[in-house]
Design a protein that fits this description.
heterodimer; A: alpha+beta; 5-stranded antiparallel sheet; 52% helix; B: Serine Threonine Protein Phosphatase 5, Tetratricopeptide repeat; 0% strand; disordered N terminus
Chain lengths: 245, 926
Amino acid sequence: MIPRLLPFLASFALCHADSLTLKNGESLQGELVDTQANFVLLRLPETEGEATRRIAPLQIETLSFSDTDAPLEQQALKRAKFQSLLSEADARILLDYLDELQSAGHPLTALAYAKLWHPKNNYPQLDPSYREQLINSSLAAGLPEEALVHAQNWIKRSPAPTDHALPWIVQAEHQLKTENLEAALWTSLTPLAYASRELSPHRQTLQQIASHAYQRLGYDEHAQAYASPDPAPKSPLVLDPQSSP
Amino acid sequence: MIARTNSRCSSNPPRAPLTCYPSPRAPRKTNRRHRLFLAGTAFACLCLSPPQAASQQIEYRSLPELIDAGSQALVRGDFPQAALAFNAIRENYAEEPVWQEGQLPAKILPLAGFASHKANLQGDAILALENYLAHYADSPDSEAFARYTLASSLMLDGQTDAARAAFAKLREIAGNSPFHDLASLREAQLSDPPRAIEILQNLIASPHSPRLATFARLRLIQLHLENAQLEQARIQLLDTPWPQTTMPELATLALLATQTADRLLADRPSDALHAYQLVPPKDQLLAAQQKRIEQLQLQYSELAPELRTEQSMWSDQFRQSITQLRQQLETLRLAPDYTPAINLRKARCFARINRPLEAWILLKPIATIPSDLAREAHLEWISTARSMQAWNAAARIAQSFLKKYPDDKDVPQILLWIALSQIERKDFAEAATSLQALVDKSPPPHIAAAAHYYLGFSLFNLANPPAAINAFQSCIQIAPNAPVAQQALLWIGICQFTTNELESAIATFQAIQQNENARFLHPEASFRETTCLYALGELEQSLLRSQSWTNTYQLHPRSAEAYLLQGDILLELNRAPEAIDAYALVETEDPQLAFLALSKRCELILLAGRPAEAAAILQTHRSQRPIPPDQIASFTQLLSQCLPPDGAQSEIQATVSRHGNDPGIPGIVALIHLLDAPPPASEEQTTLSSRLLVAEIQIHRQKGETTQAKLKALQLASSFQKTELPPVALLEAGKALTEIASLEAPSYFQRILETYPSAPELDSAHIGLARFYSQQDKPETALAHLLQRERRDTDTLALKLDLETRLGQSQNARRTAELILSDRNAKPAHKAQALQSLGGIAIQNKEADKAYAYYQRIFTLYRGETEYVANAYLNCIQILDSSNRKSDAQSVANEFLAQNDLQRLPAYQQAQTWIQNRVAPPPQPQ
């Protein structure tokens, strides 16, 4: 009976193995264990004992993981070891895990991982999600100053905020809080100036900040206008800016 | 699932009952016996139809072979071969029983029609499909397919009307299927614009395919725009959200949104902005369009295997859409980035809807990054800053424009803007310099006239009426017929009035009133003429003019001032009751003017011995409108004069107690002086306490107790926070600190400037700063503060002269000195200083005789000013000595040295040394 089962078990083991495709087309199966001195360690299945192969990252075309049914945490932490070699889909799993941590009320852990993984991210399209995560988890962890630093770094990186309003909100709220009213006004209005027609969830927040700033600067009519969804002040604005963006 | 084989062409039962037509992939199995039969029939037909056969290629294939060949060709996409085969069946077997009695036509005709349509044999297609629809159409699906194909063939065959009718028919029978929308789109395509619009509107109102509805909406906007129906285009574009995350036609939407927005911009900037906001930046649009193409491609590839032949129009639709989107994407990719152009237009919209900050945010990067739009954006950036009255910023932005585009055709305009910005922020000296530079560049006449005009205005504000008159005259010379020339003439009159050339001023104002082209200035000129007559003491004449003026221009904005003037004239004429009536007619929104008239009226009533009446008027006035904060103290003072002593004291006490601790209310110290028992200083009311201290300082000063006054002034600085001090206390503290050369002094003056810009102490704060910086040997900063003063008394002019002399600004110094000399109120010390400066300037200009005359005037006219006298003597001695008039020099020196009261002065000792050297010259070195 046992001899008849062996081939089945072997094939089962192979079915559930990670795989690694080399640039020369060769495909290796086994268990992706870790990276060591930048080399990927792949534990190869052997009939008698185990062997671990060290593969230079430059040789690797793709990695494929077999743990798709495993808990998200397990998937993410495993993939994090090979972050520079991940496919976009696998790289997204890291972000999914950060979201999960955040939703589960562990913002500090999310922040710690985000800070660790963000610099190693190879996909520019995932960069905003990491930055958003850094800001949101800092805020949720009660670290507004850190959130501000992340926001300011983001603003420096992409000066025209056509896509992402969050860092501008954080920056403007800080300026409002520190009575830097004119700066708060400029900051909150910048994403609004570039905004597209589709209402983003952030638009309302930005308009509220602008409205507060206008009010505290003594521009009641503008303050009132910005409290409405489509601001159109009736009278011209007379303001000699001390600071402009 | 749709069956892939045509079961009905085989002998087997149908595999899928849904299949209506022979599939392109059928038949897999052939019925050879049946084919043979059919082939025989076909042959017979062929023989029996020679004319028909002769007109065509002879078809040797049997019916089954033709069906096979046609089906296989269809599968291959070889439509000409398929059409050949199916049309051969149609033509060769039409008279056969197999055709006439069986289902063959119902199967073959649509295929023949479809294949012919695809093979561009539209005549054959039309024939086959019309035949099919007339006799064999047996299900809504197949009828729809046939009608669509027929209509398409008619369209391609150039039979537009028939095609349109065919699509209309299809639309009618399509029910709720997407065919309805497809047919509507095609029908609209073939209809005239009004009908097309109607069809598309119906489609959008009750769509059967969301994708086609979006397409129809875009097409409808395009039609509205082509037919100048902007409002309808706007409604279609903006009133319903777009499925931007799913719709493939993003580029089309962006294009139509831009076109609509461009037309809305002039009259409906808010809507234009919304439309521009539908245009994503180029990189985003490229990425989104690429993504949509991929989505559409995926959708099509998933759907394609399931599409039956009669659904092929959907394949066509997908393929056409994908091809079109790819072409658009490619064009877009190659096109230059349109994003800055859209942002520029959005900025214009923001500027027009009173949101200049957003305009600024968008304009700045376009203006600063080199591009074709940079210059335009820069100009609009300047305009935006000017619209916000951000004069400093506007001037800065304009300067950067000049730096970037020094040879630009708009440079004169920009220079004028800069100067206007400087005028708006009351930097008249800077404005005059900028305007002079502009005038020197010989700008075009319209700019030159404006430049001279504003130069005149700036010079007038710099208290230089003669130069202002020259500038206004240049303006008139350049543009004698422009309205600005008459305004310049008015200003000339005002300058003449200011310099007391009243007759000339009257002549000027009369000249304006005689010019019919200057009607808009007649009331102003007439009013000014009346004031000149009043100033000349021509009271009767000025009264007549004034009365005539108020009768003629009853609703003129100046009428309040005219009644005030009338009151003043009547008062001078000792017609107090009439003056009171005239003051009572002053009705104005200007609180200053209203209060001035009220106070004059009440003072006259008080003088007439009717204090109760005056008090009643004042109290009524107070009940009708709130007293402006800056007049509260004056009002209280006046009211207290009208009340009995007890009432007066309680009125003053009430004001002091209500407003004494508010640093923004002026005049409280004067009220404190009026109180029999001022309130005690308290820690709770620090501002009031500081005012009590100021009152004490003023009393000490009146008594000549300068030391106590100074000590208490320093106490203001040491015992109070700056924020607690009202301007009058800040000024006292600042002056006291200046006297001890404390570096803290400027912050007190500065607080007045920054926190209380309307305070009466503003000018004194500027002077305080000027004196401080003059002491600190920073004449340039000192002068800058002095130039910001609006009022110019002789003390200030003297300080200005000193600073200008120290800075070597001879021209300005000469002008200031002349102003001092022409000032009747100037003290001898001021005049002596002015003469000394003029002498120094004459020496610099090598005009020794002139210099001598100035110095001589000092020791002749102002002998009390010993220091100036001594210096003047010494200067004269030196002038004569250097002119080799030794004996004259000796005489002057003797005269000088004879005056014992000058002995302690350095100049005296220098003169003594000069005499000694002259008597016994020192030994010359060998």
